[in-house]
Amino acid sequence: FDESQLVDYSESAELPGEDSATHEKPTHSDIQAVRKSLPAFKQRQSFLDVVKSNQVVIVVGETGSGKTTQLPQYLYEEGYHKRAGKQKILKIGCTQPRRVAATSVARRVAEEVGCSLGDEVGYSIRFEDQSSQVTAIKYLTDGMLLREFMTDPMLTSYSCLMIDEAHERTVSTEIVLSLLKDVIKERQDLRLIIASATINASKFSDYFNLAPIFKIPGRRFPVTIAYTKNPEANYIQAAITTVLQIHMKQELPGDILVFLTGQDEIETMEETLNEASRKLGNLIKPLIVAPIYANLPPKLQARIFEPTPYNSRKVVLATNIAETSITIDGIKFVIDTGYVKENVFNPATGMESLVVVPCSRASADQRAGRAGRVGPGKCYRLFTKWSFYNELPENGTPEILRANLSSVILLLLSIGVSDLINFDFMDPPSHQTLIRCLELLYSLGALNVKGQITETGQKMAKFPMDPMFCKAILTSVEYNVKDDILSIISMLSESSSLFYRPKDKKELADKMRERFFHEAGDHLTLLNIWHQWRDNGYSNLWCEDHFLQYRTLKKIREVRNQLEKLCQKVIPVFPVVGECTPDICSVQKALMSGFFPNIAKLSKLGNSYTLLKKNQPVYLHPSSRLFSVKPPPKYVLYHELVLTSKEYMRNCMVINETWIDELAGHYYQKQIQN
Ligand code: ADP
Ligand code: MG
């Protein structure tokens, strides 16, 4: 640890505390006492009163005040789940934009209620349902609730719905709110609660006919903000140095929360910090590094909530999930890189990519606020004050204005919402975006020329995935390669890392990985992995020998089982196309029938690719099997674009030029003529 390389900060203004006088530290570890100590508890009765006399209530409160864990329990204790009589249970639903939040909160509330998860308290996220007949409090992702409209348009199994984290403005939340606006007219008995952190409340109230805003006074101590004096070129390195700076100079207790953009960064930082603390050994007090991100298995997630042992310090490395959806007690220092990873859809090209962008000032203040829950705190911003005021946008862009909407549009069409132009969006997406998405759906065969949903489209809508995936699945049945396509798609849809490379065995790990390589690229390489794992009895040991993450493969297997079941329901019998014998080409073609918009052609110089549809340069991602293939294939189909220094194609497959005309002629007419 080199003192001369310290990150240089200038102290600045304070983020004022809120109502800090009312703060009382919970002294009992007893769970019910903790419940009673939360700010929401003081408002319990007035909350129940306002819900009783208003169909829609907007609830606003500081993060950690008990909105998510307590309000559904109050409704439950009040008997809202028994409103249909003693026999039938009506659920109290609470939506979350993030899967981790839904599962982690459900687990916590089950503990508070004193039941097993899946009994009175449960959750439901994509491909995983932990709820049952007796479930009265159900946490679910907003996307799952949206899907429930397909089978139960009036949401008759619910007595109350809390749409939580509404300030996040995810596409699913906004569509759900819009649909609920109609449902509540028909169902006077349904109670709707819209909960958000401190921003945007009046906008929701306006949208719901001036619904009352119910405030839960927060408790937050002042937080001192420090900015770096100069811009930091490498924010991860700066974050690591700052953690060590704090750890050596600041008194204990006082845990640290670091905001990063994703799993890769978190893993890198975790490894570096662990190594540094091993090297420093007895020179420093113990440093406990605990990561939290969407794909982390629940057991490891729980570590962030474990009390920090005496005389040591916990460092939580988090994505923006810790901004508002998860509250970790004991945090005194926040380190904010100032970035967030977002999916951005470009309506001009019709392409979507994952991009790291500066977070908003509102987010940065939320993040800083996490330092002031136990006492006065401090936030280290890894950017300059100038940058805060000049480079960070005031508020984030709602997802609906930047995301690819084809999946949601298909879902809306399938439940009979056909007039999208006049759909009651809170912030309507641009016509260009809507048209792009309709075009894509049309070219996938989900819509007819009149823009009406087709039978194929209806089937596609049944799968909780991007329409491109769904199309590939449907085609695979015709081509008699369903099993392989389901395997590949399950592998692709799991975003946790599959491979690992221990520092001391990198070469061996790479060698093992090469054994799976398929000349046609990453999709078939993934298929090889799947086949070999299956043939080795889905063994854990086999994974270890091949440097593959067992828990990732296990999740993939679960997803695959779910997809298999869905297939049986949606496409029971399907004529297999004539003489088609299952072979690798059929697998490739089935994939291409869905992903044909993602084709790139090798440039004349042979050093890059251009998207076939638009003349935009893209590059093979270094992780791709095709990256090192010489000469590079003329045409590739990619699974996704990742924008870092360049626009990279991740997961790529070689395709045959003749297939373009055969399978995507309708889409590429102009390009083929040229
Ligand atoms: P809000 O939704 O208002 O941000 P929550 O209901 O999520 O607040 O959290 C209220 C409190 O419950 C937190 O301050 C924390 O003390 C406690 N809590 C929440 N989840 C957990 C968990 N998984 N483990 C331990 N404590 C938790
Ligand atoms: Mg919450």
What is the end-to-end distance? Answer: 59 Å
User: What's the average pLDDT?
Assistant: 90
- C-alpha Rg (nearest Å): 26 Å
Strand content: 15-25%
Q: What ligands can be seen in this structure?
A: adenosine-5'-diphosphate, magnesium ion
**Strand line-up in the sheet with most strands:** 5-4-6-3-7-8-2-9
Q: How many helices?
A: 25
Biggest beta sheet summary: 8 strands, mixed
Helix content: 25-40%
Instruction: Report low-confidence residues grouped into runs of 5 or more.
Output: 19-28
- Report the structural category: alpha/beta
Could you tell me the number of beta strands? 22
Broad shape: globular
Descriptive report:
- The protein is of the alpha/beta class.
- It is 40% helix and 19% strand.
- The chain is built from 25 helices and 22 strands.
- Helix 4 crosses helix 5 and helix 15 (406-414) crosses helix 17.
- It is globular.
- The N and C termini lie far apart (59 Å).
- Residues 242-416 form the Helicase C-terminal domain.
- It comes from Australozyma saopauloensis.
- Residues 48-217 form the Helicase ATP-binding domain.
Q: Which features would summarize this protein structure in a list?
A:
single chain, 674 residues, alpha/beta, eight-stranded mixed beta sheet, seven-stranded mixed beta sheet, 25 helices, globular, binds adenosine-5'-diphosphate, binds magnesium ion
